[in-house]
Batch of 4 targets.
Target 1
Amino acid sequence: MKTVRRIYFYLMALIGFQVLIWGIIGQIRILFDTSLVGNLGAQVSRSLAWTLVALPIFLLHWLTVQRDARRDSEERFSRERSLFLYGILIGLMIPVVQNVLAILSRALLGLFGVESSAAWIGGGQNLADNLAAILVNLLGFLYFGRVLQRDWQSGPPGEAWVETRRLQRYVWMLYGLGMALIGSIRLLDVLLQFITLPHLGGLSNIAANALSLTLIGLPLWILWWLRIQRSLGQPEEALSLLRLSILFSLTILSALTILVVGGVLLNQVLLIVLDGEKLDWESLNGVLSLGAVFGALWFYLRRTLKQAIATIPDGLRAVAVARIYRYLLAAAGCLAVYLGMILALLEGVERLFASNWLGGSLSSILGPIAMLLIGLPYWLVFWMRSRAEAQHEGELGDHARRSLSRRIYLYAFILISVLSMLGFGGQLVFRLLNQVLAGGTENLLSESLKMLSGLLVASTWLAYHIYTLRQDSRHALRTLQERQTGFPLLILHAGDETFVQEIRTALGRIAPTLPVAAHDINLGAPDEALTGARAILLPSSLALHPPEALRLWLNGFSGQWVIVPQAQAGRIWSGVELRSLGQTAREAARTVTQLAEGQSVRTTKTASVWTILGYILLGLVGLQVLL
């Protein structure tokens, strides 16, 4: 209830304050805007109404949460409060930045001799409008910034506040980076247009707006990026998931942009060399500027991402993160090769049956060829690295073969191949049946060959990825069998042969190579031949009340215990669901197998009646959608 209450009060305070400040801004703008003389009454009424309505709403909710924060440290350091304070500071400062950008854009346009209305940001505003917004938002920023500072000084704020502050830093960094990227790309485009097409007009407008974006965005990005870099001395900042996710996303985005740009450039080169097409500098310059900026960004971020991955203390987790990066780029390259090959074959067959197959424009076939050629290096480089890692013997290779990223990659292309075969095969069968039943199908041979070409590529992709998946399975099976063989298990029981048989049966199904021995404690403690067991499995009755000889033997046993819960009078197993002997034996067998294979132990939960009913309902809804 407290969380819901906090969300309500802080949300209403945020809405009330935003309406209030923009009502005040409207009042100030009216004082200096001479164009509103004829419509002054309506403008004053509107802005004053918003101000008068928003003020009590804001004060009611804000003063309530302030009172709660003074009385209770839990309220003062709640996550909702941190999100409100940092969020409202961002909401107040971004309009300040935007209005400064508007002033700078109009000033630069004036220097370039262009009308101020051509500004991308604030073209329809004047200086009074911008100054009013800057003044009011800055006053609000100073007030809430002071509130935030006092909260930080009043005591250790807790993890929620640290996380929100981190989020705020990355929001500002991304905001500045976005403006810097747009501005620098357009600036470089203008420079290239000026060099290659000096007679082209209309560049002053783009240059002024792009320069203003760069002059505002670049320092903003550098400021917050350096602040983030300075915070990395704290382990929680250096190892934060947010930092790793943003670096990862930006690096992947940059690499994919380079792939697309490379395909466009290669296509242009092929058109010039093979098709005799003239060089289109006006469109090519934009592509070159995009590739140059994102290439520089990728070069810098790739090194930063490697450093961030290297700081991860868990070596296997660090390798897993790097593996995701490789598989994403390998997937992009593989998809480009796959689509390029199919489209090139389809166009090739089309041209083969055309009357002038060597004549005409080659743009329709050179585009897929360029896609294939640019995607091939991506695929080969990153896939071969991933393939080599998966072929390693030992723990690293085992983790690589069983990794989720590899499984998603392989199954994704298996899915794509099967769907492609379904589409091409369906079209082929349709055309053949249509020829037999209806007759008169035009271009039957060419259309059939096109579908067969698509089927050939899709089936090749399917066969290769299934083969790779099976190779992984064979490696994994051999590794798991070796681990199971080296993990002898000892079952302790008190003459309960049924219990032993259920456990043996369950283990025989999922871990047939795991050595299993059983010992009846009625015959005394296990002898020395059984002390080499890596784990023991025993019912809870023996674990709670072992005979003296067994107790002494258990005290000297250094392996792992797997205790099977049993119903006993006066004994309640909190958090443990008691099941039938067969179910309990299967669960115990799964636990032993996970221990043998070096996995973390995960228990299975029985689905509730409501869950089962939910699945049934979902299935019925899905059936209705399909029908």
Note: The chain has a mean pLDDT of 86.
Target 2
Amino acid sequence: MTTKQTLNAPSVAGQPGASADLPASNPFRVIKFINLEELFMSVDLIRSSFVACLLAVAGCGDSSPPAPLVSGANPYEGHDLTGAPNILLIVADDMGFTDIGTFGSEIETPQIDALAAAGVIFSNFHVAAACAPTRAMLLTGVHNHLAGQGSMMYLAPNQRGQPGYEDRLNDRVVTVARLLQDAGYHSYMAGKWHLGSKAMQGPPDRGFERSWWLAEGVAPHYSSDRLIPPHHYFDGLEPTEESVDFFSSDSYTSRLIEFIDGNRDSGRPFFGYLAFTAPHSPLQAPKELVDKYEPIYARGWDVIRAERYRRLQNSGLAPAEQALPPRWPEVPAWDSLSETKRAIEARKMALYAGLIDNMDQNIGRLLTRLRDIGEYENTVVFFLSDNGAEHVDPEVLDALIMKALLLGSDNSYDNMGKPGSFVFAGPPWANVSATHLRGHKGLATEGGIRVPLLVSWPGRVSAGLRSEQLSMAIDIAPTMLAIAGIEHPGTEYRGRDVVPPSGVSLLSYLTGQTETVQRPGSVGYELAGHQAQFYDRWKALKLRPPFGNDQWALYDILADPGETTDLAAQYPERLAALVRDHEHYLQKNGVILAPEGYDALSAKLGIRDILALLFSAE
């Protein structure tokens, strides 16, 4: 008998009545529940159904029966929270290294820049090269493979069904939200979850007292009734829909403010997680912001990139002696474009900038509210991006995949950035967002995994400190626990075995008690077959084709953050030591490398052949 579930089986956005029971194991759970006769009456709906399953990564993950995540006594009951601060974690989505003012951008981000001026700026901070693995590490302090996000794309045959590849936040980890809530904190979340959408996989089950959340990894920024991309919102455990006046960053921020205000007189601190979907594609932004930035980007990506690099060098956030690397090979000179093409490209980046500008305004709105209620001075703020800039180019990516994704979109010049459009920034502007760094989202190069980290805590952290200390996404959760005065439980918590943190606390460094981040050894990384091992200023890097030759290289990422000079021949023993450490990392974290030549974008369950059939009947 097929098990049915209503919990976490929401309707397609804008499709009233689509929240009927769905089979718990049904891979098409993101599609409106209809009968087969209706399904086969519409070729477009058939296409939409298959495409939804292709794109809704969060909805097609592990379907194992849920088990209780919490049982037994709360070991933190009665924890003394006297003087404990509020903790606010703010995450941008697909924002590149130089996309905020402090890091050289022309985009106006005065609120984020004010956080930087009042806090610590980390310029050697690393995350995963994709959204969900980073979020898993941020919320648990555990390497992504141990937390269930060993891969964010379709799994290779040797990875399917294996521990660490559940494609959701698995049951071996406990979140910082759960630990803080059990210790007496209020815990709130608004925005993108992307760590599981089935029963007992959402924020309410992982320690968030109040939540308003997007299940999948991508959604329109405006309210929309489009099936593509499939997206679902929840208010706690209940499926919900966007309001008519919905705009992503505005709405997420309003929800978090509402949650904070609801318990402001309780006398207890709060943990707030504000997970923006800006500036992730589809690029959509208010007209006034597009108009503001379009003339700036009409000057072209070559000029903008060079200006960013000069500002970055002048601020000490890039090596003064290193020249700006050449444009990426796939990026043409701006002057070679036609007038029409220049206008289109300028609008793309104006949309991207508008999303970041709007996000900054909303951060300011939230911080203003904290000041108004007297909580700002007692709030620690972390701001970062989940990975490097997105580089997707619909003109060169697999035509079938892009045709599926852009199904029903109106990307005409006049409609770019409005509801119904699905616009990407593309490689040239991703090159600007990375500026001097190599590569983009999806790669283990610095452009894919190095992002800004800002930490503000009025009167407590070393204001204005610019740090090149190696720091990682796995360090954030241990730091937040240390700030709250809470010890991680170790290997067991409330009736189940859990994995202890992989990262270290940055607290002693933030408060000036130590001059360096106290890390005992090197740190490993792997995603999609791309591998890296870090120690101090050194990085061993191995990229799979076509991005590399599957051989180890060695870089000094402080002197050469653009990874332009391979030092493997000059320092063979140093590289060998890092490679040995990496082998230990792979074994300890249960990393399963996909077979050589495996293509996660096309070698999956015959999906490319299915798409070919679906789109052949035009």
Note: The two ends are 39 Å apart (CA to CA).
Target 3
Amino acid sequence: MSFLAIDTECTGARAAAGDRPYYISTCDSRGVIRSFSFDVNPFSREPTIPRKTIKDVEKLISEYDSYVFQNAKFDIQMLNSIGIHIPFEKVEDTIFAAHTLDNRAKRRLKDLSKTYLGIDTDDEQDLLNAIVQARSIAKKMGWNIARHDYDDEDGESWMKVDGWIPGKLALLSEQFPQEWRSVLPRYGDRDAERTAGLWTVFKVLFEEDERFYKAYKANKVCIRAIVTMESRGVTLRPKEFQRSKGHYERMAQKYETKMRKLIGVKDFNPGSTKQLQVVLFDLLKLKPIKTTKTGNSTDKHVIRALYKQNPDNQFLESLIAYRKARTTVTYEQSYEEHRIGCRLHSSFNPTGTDTTRLSSSGPNLQNVGKGEELKEDEWGTAGKDTYNIRNVFGPLRGRVWLDFDYSQLQLRIFAAQSGEQKLIEAFENGWDAHNFMACQIFQTNEPTTLQRRIAKNVNFGFIFGASERRITETCGDPKIWPIVQSLFPSATEYLEKTKRFVNKHGYVEFGQPVCNYRLKVPVNPNTEEPKGYTGVVYGVQGLEGLIVKQAMAHLDRHLSELHKSYDAPFLTLQVHDELIVDAPALPGLEWHLDLMRTIKRIMEMAGEMYGVKTPADGSIIRSSWDKAEEVELMYA
């Protein structure tokens, strides 16, 4: 089958903000290269794209069976922005292929080309040198040169967005280096050639071991859904967003002032590690817990542990509250920098982690929790204030959000992978995993808050492959782990079995019966030996990522097939195990309930594909994300 590798060079990284392609290069399976260049207005940065050129590109594309990209979701959005549409079912992506073959290796196009093709990167440096010189000239001429104000998730130099400037200057006057005319075509065409070469190699590797190809397909299934989320964006509530920004700034200032008064130091800066070390360990005489190269650690885990030891210490309480407020301020500053009107068009990176989970940037929306982690600290309320950033998000007028969240997905996956029958039956009987663990450990029907917290630490100790020592430290009771071992023999044996496998092979496998995904685990930098204890979490989070991506893909496809208008429901956001659909607020509730039942079924079927029962809970959001109305959904 013939394929066409396609690469775009663009005036920026955000199609939603008006950035557009200025150079399209292609290379087919026979090595034939064709490219298309567009003139860019130096003051508006808008490319002039003739309709005839669009037709020429479309004609070229129609001649091939499949289309290969390095980071397909980016190039597809850029091509969409100028009216060129690529059928998703024919898309291949070398980034996904590279992740499947080696999840811990670098995945930049240049790095992959050097590893698999032996191609050096000298052409990129030639381009960058020309851009640096040309930008200096263009700036003096009043041209609109780019600012480094966006995240480049592929690790490429941000200045490539001005790759059109050298050639334009060379065409404008012979006083500028005439070799600048060819530097962009040489670079752009080489990228398409690299992408074609990589796919040729990857195809051979997939043919040699079909397991890799099945894993690749399972991971890349989400491309279309990501394009939908990035292009449509997620909405902020304008008035609440403006109010919230000032609120958390004042809260941070309040606790900063309180800390200064408590220690009697007017110019104390809580953001200074050195000053904080002096206050905590010299002035307040607290006992250090961990030492680093820069002295006694003041990271969040240390501060929490100190607060646990000193629950009446007002300085520690204020410090925790200050850090929470500053964290919230930082998040909202990022939203302000990236918002386009009332929408955030985050970049979701489906291969941005060493497992299969998604990451996001510009801004990072994966760190928007449900509020609990900011509302109440692990060891106390720390200031008694409410920290909830979800209230700045929500549907626009005339819309609602249908919010679905997998119920304790990681723990359900662990139960299935370990074969621990007690945990499996507990889930089947409707137990909350932490309550169940607490009841088992402490032999009670009504566990206290502290007992549930200890049980939660045990559960996640399982998932993260924690040692007996670590679980004992976290729970604060040396008797806990022996009890857990006796209660859950299959789970504890699975931990040891996985560690032994990983120590021997260096990877963990999961995903049956759909695929056999293999993830390499981190190694100890001192010994180069695999970190066996990471095998469980890599297996759990790896399968978690595949299930969520499968749900995203099927949900996006269903919504696009049933509802064709722009006002129709669409997938607007993914945060870990949570998916949100933005839908019209139609009169009555039955239409929404029918759609919610379908969403629930799609998400649960994604887990069933991998042999895991994955209930999904649904709610309706009419105003702000933090005010969800839970809905009891029964299948017909």
Note: The two ends are 44 Å apart (CA to CA).
Target 4
Amino acid sequence: MCIRDSCSGFPQYYPGDFDQNGIVDLLDLIWFSQNWLDSCNPVSFDSDPSPVCDGCDLDNNGIVDLSDYALFAVDWLAQVTVTDKYVNGNSGSDSNDGNSPSCPYKTIQKALDNMTASGTVYLMESTFDSTTQGANWYLTCDATNSGADIIIKPYQGASVTVRTQSPYYCILVNGMTGGALTLEDFTLQSEAADLSSTNGRGLIQNREDVSLALSGMTLGDGTTGTQVGIYCRYNDKTTRDITLTDTALNVTDEGIIVQSCDEISIDSGCSITSRGGSCIKTQPLSGVCYVSKVEIHRTRLNSQAIGGLYAIDLDNIYFDTSKEWADLVRVDNCTVNSWGGGITCNQNVYVVLVRNNTVTINHEYDAAVGIRIGKDFPTNSYPHGMTIIYGNTVSFTGSSNSHGILVGSGCDNADCGYNHVSGGDIQLVVKGDGGQIHHNVLYGPRTLYSKEAQRTVFTHNTCYSTDGYAFKWINNGTQDPDCCIVENNIFVLTCAAAADKAVLFNNDDNPFNCRFDYNCYYAPNGADISNLGGARASLAELQAAWASYDFGFPDNDSHSKETDPQLTDPAGGEFTLQPGSACFNTARPTPDGGYVSIGAWQARQAGRAPTVPAPLVGSPITGAF
């Protein structure tokens, strides 16, 4: 058994550890031999050891004899290491040992200064601020804590608020080598007016190869000064991770800034509100940001910064200094509200997966894009390995000159399907080659824009344009659309301006070796169906133009139709086919007789579901929670 400390009552050393150096060893054996056969008065274990026997009468029978030696032998080489520390800002004292709730430290920093091994710092119920922790205070993990896995959390579910006063940060990890810092279930705030990204500050700043994990935390108050939530600064160390679960950030600058990190994981139950920047941003240093993997799952993100900022800004990612590709960017089942852009990732990543998110753009900013994967322009663009954009809902509350989804340059062989985009200016822009663009519902002024895309399949999309075009091809002066397939789509154009076409070709005649067929065209207010080789007011005129076109298939659109597709309620967001629609079961037949109606969502009424791998559309719920 262990002798218990008179202050804490907690085990401090084994009874055979006479010199109290933490281990029963040879020095204690010498001590014991010097008291051999000494007589002393029996004492209680709750009292101090007898000064006569120097604590060597282990069985308390009044003499140091063989029975005491037997007990000493049992404790041989035994050690007691107390690694957990306790802090109470109201009643604690830094002169205590901090080893128990009854003998807590007063300041959290005192506890960290004594965390040389892995353990937990328990915060007892109180508010830790400048009145108890000192003026201009903040917390530092330094070389003393190297290699330790440190947890800071409330004691027995206490309600704890940590409010620092330093003008630089709340928690700084600097000088600590290896190990991890975990924060759990308390509120972290700062009284400082300037913890901004401009000055390289933040509520939490990690400069070392230390993993950072937050669970059940609340960071910031959303009103004080200009504050960054978490800042992971570059210093040639990329082995660290950032993990957030059930954590809320409410800050006035960027939510999370990462210059260098191995893996970023933001998981279920998190919410990030930024009133002056991005919710999460990979910030380049000398043009690049070293990140291996980013996974954001079931998280609410709210960026209230007006302008060209994205709620999720993952541009300029590389894995390491040799510019190896990052492994994965995955954003799924999130709810994104932004006054700028929604989600962006435009650098070298092996796999980009963006699925089942709800993105709402709440401000009329002209450059906003709901989901942007890849570059806007091919100049200096970098490729992605695999791009999957599935099952997302993107909407705009204003009439800004913006895009819903951009499949940018470098996103070759992208799979973009089952998305619903409404509002904005252009709903879906495709610039990468070799993609599959399918089963998308697009509603707004200019719904589908193919910009130089080659070897791309556009199939089973419902494009309902209210002003401009349902489908536009453009070569942008560098390359013409070539070897594409455009089949089984619904193209509706409801406006009547002379320049508007349901399908609009740049330079009147730029599709080369492209197959058009089994589409439904409808322009009820007098707009032309197309401009292939000139104005084509009807499908019959378009078919005649294909027959005489030198760079295509003369039988293009021979199975297409010009008719009202009878969509249920486009203005109300319902794009299923009404009973009796001519689009039922009139798409190109598939070898297995499967999904054979024209458009995106008609399978609900056709009685046959689209063949989609379950993991890609598995959740019936999009967005967080």
Note: Residues 151 and 182 are 5 Å apart (CA to CA).
